[in-house]
Amino acid sequence: MNNPADTTPPRRAIDIVNASLKRRYARERRFRWLGATAVTLGMVFVVLLFADIILKGYTAFQQTYIQLPIELAAATIDPDGTRDPATLARADYMKLIREALREQFPEVRDRRDRRRLNSMISVGAPDLLRERVMADPALIGTTQELWILADDDIDMLVKGYIDRNAPESDRRVSDQMIGWINRLEAEGRVAKRFNTIFFTHGTSREPELAGIAGALMGSFYTLALTFLLSFPIGVGAALYLEEFAPKNRWTDLIEVNVNNLAAVPSIVFGLLGLAVFIGFFGVPRSTPLVAALVMTLMTLPTIIIASRVALKSVPPSIREAALGVGASPLQTQFHHVLPLALPGILTGSIIGMARALGETAPLLMIGMIAFIVDIPKGFTDAATVLPVQIFLWADSPERGFVERTSAAIIVLLAFLFVMNLAAVLLRRRFERRW
Amino acid sequence: MNKTLIAAAVTLAATTLSTQAMARDTINIVGSSTVFPFSTAVAETFGRTTSFKTPKVESTGTGGGMKLFCGGVGVDYPDITNASRAMKASEFDACQEAGVKEITEVKIGYDGIAIANSKSAGAWDMTLKDIYLALAKDVPDGKGGFMANPYQTWKDVNADFPEIKIEVLGPPPTSGTRDAFVELAMEGGCNSIPEIKELKKTDKDKHKAVCHGIREDGAYIEAGENDNLIVQKLVSNPSALGIFGYSFLDQNADKVQGAKIDGVEPTYDSISDGSYPVSRSIYFYVKKAHVGTIPGIEEFVTEFTSDKAWGPEGYLADKGLIALPDDERAAVAEAAQSLKPMEKPAN
């Protein structure tokens, strides 16, 4: 380089820049490309997940029914003609359905075959018929063309989840039953109708009778109580720590601990709930009350941290102006600072609630993994919640629960989506920038 | 703000105290996840056909259920616990100490554990010894000692088997199915090797370690508690085998097939008569002190032990329960319905 014979002029800065320019542009392009790939890959996985769940689950929103002309004989339902609800409730509705079914297939005489024929009807069908008759006693004595709920095996067959060409021994529906169903289908007596049971009933061991109403109500009570407990405590704590508390070692210690609590695995809160709320205070197991207490502990740090950030972002000039015109510190906070910080606080709270909605791990410990048929009517009724219901259905051997698991996931995702959307909208609507 | 906090704390304490004194009108059932599908089916039918409320059934595992059940007498403690094995003497003692004196034991039936593979591959016919050699952590090295399991393919285990890599999907150690599999299949297999059987007499601990250890080098894959997942994985991987309860085999007979073990296929009949080697009895236990306090316990036991529920043609058979033989079933039903207290178990 230092050869005096070398005639090239010394390199200028611009040459160095020019020389490296191509490489720098390439680097930037590479980085952009990598970023775009990462985003695309993420989107592809989300789409795949959603597509898989929706494809598996959408069929659960329809349910197979068989139309039968049912003679609602007064002699069976109400022999004395009193229309007494207790008598109507006790009547043997299964007999009416079976008689109607037998009339469709008069050639089936063998006892075994009749049993098989009867097994095409859901064990819950008589209850649905009873509700129908009790709601409208005028039907008694008439013959009605009614849609009767089919058994889950028939439902799976009609929906195409059971391969009709598989060897007979390999499927739960015999050739004979397929023959009967084909005949009913040809007569237009088999139809898939909207599955209202899924939204109005509690869980069941029969897939065709299983619904998410019980889990939904359990989730609702749990979340409502969680919000009622954690929102005032969380916002109050944040307000005190941010605005009133002296800055010393103790408040530092509290702050560090609040931040730590936000990162504690949720199962730990479950263990704590078991030991303290159930073991020490004697709160009943498997109730929305105990679940809400545990969830409150879990969401408090999230709410406190979000609230403090929101309070911090309110400019000090607002506080000073309020104090300047003679407001007391408490009035300053409640009349001026808190309303301005509320959008941020609500966003944080909703995200905390959404997390609580999807949580299962702490509930394992406090007895929420339970089979509960009755829909809870209050905070101290035994209940389960949506994610736990999904877990229990995923573990059930019956084929019909596969689609129901996915359908319940769709409902849960819809709720999470709505909650997150609300958080975004609230922020958009009320956010003020300074 | 402090006032708000105190007020909140007071309301909280008040609600908890008021609920504590509350009576209970639903039966509480806890216990084994294996018995859960049967217990829930009876609970639902019971709720539907009687005027009592539908019992609450919790899936806590056999051990967890025993702990809750033996916690004491009163509305805070469960009335019935399900178990995929008989109550141990230690658990019986714990119950006695807590004041749970009279317990009725009800044997419900059998549950088989199937070793299955995809229908798209050939059927398996293996012995307990093959299972042990394929899955044990340590196997005899032929010189009187033990070595880490060297077998990589099924052909290494038994020359009659095809040369397929050993891949078995099974439940994790927390599962009752795993406990039963280890006790019935692994221990049965290792006792068929004479030198290990000798070991039981001389060194019991060593015998247990050898028989109960499952290999951790990837040949045995812990697939979680979800048996449906194992079925799905078997379908997508025809060379793998899976271990799960008989009811899942029964429900998915179009997708998977059960392997013959010691020449016996896992069917309803072979498990019922005891010829299928990997099967166990399942139970539930009733707290007699609660009868009369909590409404419906006697009626629930009657419903469970009626032929329309647990009989060979009953609705539980449809859920995969293997019924007891007729005479035993009648005897157990009579003892259960009269709530006969059990004796202390031998071990």
Automatic annotation (TrEMBL), chain A:
GO cellular component, one term: plasma membrane
Start and end residues of each ABC transmembrane type-1 domain: 216-423
Record InterPro entries: DUF3333 (IPR024573), MetI-like (IPR000515), MetI-like_sf (IPR035906), Phosphate_PstA (IPR005672)
TM region(s), chain numbering: 33-55, 220-241, 261-283, 290-311, 406-426
Keywords annotated in UniProt: Cell membrane, Membrane, Transmembrane, Transmembrane helix, Transport
Entry keyword annotation includes Cell membrane: yes
Principal subcellular localisation of the protein: membrane
Protein topology in the membrane: Multi-pass membrane protein
BP-aspect Gene Ontology terms: phosphate ion transmembrane transport
Keyword Cell membrane: yes
SUPFAM superfamilies, A to Z: MetI-like
Localisation per UniProt entry: Cell inner membrane; Cell membrane
Coiled coil: none
Gene3D superfamilies listed in its UniProt record: MetI-like
Pfam families, alphabetized: BPD_transp_1 (PF00528), DUF3333 (PF11812)
GO MF: phosphate transmembrane transporter activity
Recorded superkingdom: Bacteria
Family affiliation: Belongs to the binding-protein-dependent transport system permease family. CysTW subfamily.
Name of the protein: Phosphate transport system permease protein PstA
Gene: pstA
UniProtKB/TrEMBL annotation, chain B:
Stretch forming the signal peptide: 1-23
Oxidoreductase as UniProt keyword: no
Lineage: superkingdom: Bacteria
Keyword annotations: Signal
All residue ranges annotated as the PBP domain in the record: 19-308
Protein name: Phosphate ABC transporter substrate-binding protein
